[in-house]
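Fig. S4 source data, part A: sequence.
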Amino acid sequence: MHARLDRSSRAWEVLAEFARQHKLDDRIVTALHDVAMAGRVRRTRYEQSEGLSMQQAQRDLRDLATAGVLESVGRTRARYYVAGSRFPESALEIARTPMSLTEPYANGA
């Protein structure tokens, strides 16, 4: 559990820095983090996570897709977004780093 949180936190930090460097609103880090950690983000999840209107969430995701940071997959209600060609690769590498599992009962408990 700790390793997963650490990996998630490190990916978040990379994405927050990416947003700062590109003068993007901090709220988009939520959408980018979902893409890094889960492979995709849907507008409804981003909208709910950030308390946005549907129009604002659509605009943010569309702008990120136009910039090549995200790539739109599907149409209308089935649409979701994945990493585009300009998505920060370092965040994807952190998210994809395999976790080593430890035996929770190693001490014979």
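Fig. S4 source data, part B ends here. The longest helix spans residues 2-21.
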